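Fill in residues.
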């Protein structure tokens, strides 16, 4: 699957790796629900770092349709809420 991190680019990520992102996605949802700004910021950065670690970057000149779009590391809590589905940022990871 192709994952875009807004403002950074795209990576190819095996769907089998989504389960590894689920715990961070659940933490992010809980922090957003609790209004925990510092926790939200730390977990968002950890989630994006994990995507970068598990994924393979696509060339900068490649533009593939994205299966999943994640916010930039400096996105606000409100911006991330707009991207959420009922499953969090990573739908179907559970």
């Amino acid at each position: 699957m192709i994952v875009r991190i807004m403002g950074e680019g795209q990576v190819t990520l095996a769907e089998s790796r989504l389960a590894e992102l689920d715990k961070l996605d659940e933490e992010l949802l809980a922090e957003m629900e609790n209004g925990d700004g510092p926790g939200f910021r730390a977990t968002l950065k950890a989630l994006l770092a994990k995507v970068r670690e598990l994924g393979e970057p696509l060339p900068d000149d490649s533009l593939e349709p994205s299966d999943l779009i994640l916010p930039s590391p400096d996105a606000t809590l409100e911006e991330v809420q707009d991207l959420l589905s009922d499953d969090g940022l990573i739908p179907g990871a559970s």
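The mean pLDDT is 88.
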